[in-house]
């Protein structure tokens, strides 16, 4: 199995003159990329030790991709930070990972106190340090496939983020699975517009060098800019979360472009309405591909090719089939495999599945069942063709605009308000985001507060996309089960009654 550095070295030799990256006015060949990655890995090795964790807090860019490759190539561990996190979340992930170095494209503020060294991308600091570095005398460690490559922090039902440990082998297995399931061709030009701190945002970053394809990187998502890039760069492939795809459809309807270069658009990360897929089919006339997975699976677990051909078929609600090399199963609450058509928990097994959660042995043990199967927390079933159908999503998780919001984390923030006695956070229908965060709160006796005060209270503690968009106050205790667990199903019913909650 390749490691990341061997993959880039191979691409730099075999596809030397192919365009590897386009970012703004900068264009980089694979020969240049391989050279920069090697140079950056040597620089990083000059002041860190093997296995050290290095945090990266940045918008999408060619430098982000360079560091995403160079940090693991140096035998170190990259810790990509969500650019939408609030400072307490950033501090927690940095300190939990034990990262002593932060590379950022912005003023780190109070986060600087959590590390020994800050290197800035936006001030030219990084480029200057790299230019001044000479590799003479710097010992380079060549990583092995089972070495840790990255810690990808994701929300957890405990209310604290968990560092998902992905090895070189995990990431390269996913790259190969990607190629087997939805092949990228040597002359493909892939558009990266999803945030690269997500596993889904970089899932093709290691598949492209396998064949010498081009990665066209946008700093973020803006529908008109995306469509312009498709035209200007003759983009052939792209991934979008459903809200992105819906916005692209709206802009393409109002301001049509010639997007005939597109070969396929994949989507994932959250539910999508069939109407959005139908609009995308009419407007882009290319293959639509549904991806399902998790950070813990690096991330692809299933792929649904040519989804546009199944829009009037029962399988339209499917997430597709596992690629070669990945197994998907359904188990009951005891971990026993269930038969086809029976509903249970979705489990995944393969070389792409994480090593575990960083410094969390109990949560790691809970995440697996016998045989090395990773428990996704999603509920679904398989048909006789191996197609996976989800009937419910991960417990207590809201998917809003492609971002996972874990209810317990938001509830913990709400509970720090002195007026709050009880709180429950649920997902409610939202035309734009699919779901939005809603809080149901019971106040203490004689206490007072308002919706706006609760929202502002949360805004200081969690990322903006996790902040409740609406709040209701109940004068009765929240409904509970016999053991005392809040019945969120009862709280959701008034909002979802009469609506078909798409899980596609």
Terminal residue distance: 33 Å
| Count of domain modules | 2
> Could you name the ranges where pLDDT drops below 50 across 5 or more consecutive residues?
500-504
Major sheet: size, sense and barrel closure?
A: 8 strands, mixed
CATH superfamily of the largest domain: ANL, N-terminal domain
Query: What is the name of the CATH architecture of the largest domain?
Result: 3-Layer(aba) Sandwich
- What class do helices, strands and sheet pairing give? alpha/beta
On the 0-100 scale, what is the average pLDDT?
Answer: 92
Say what oligomer this is. Answer: single chain
Q: Write the CATH fold name of the largest domain.
A: Rossmann fold
Question: Spatial order of the strands in the main sheet?
Answer: 2-1-10-9-11-12-13-14
Shape: globular
Strand coverage percent: 25-35%
Helix share, percent: 25-40%
Number of strands: 26
Q: Work out the radius of gyration.
A: 23 Å
CATH class of the largest domain: Alpha Beta
Q: Number of helix segments?
A: 14
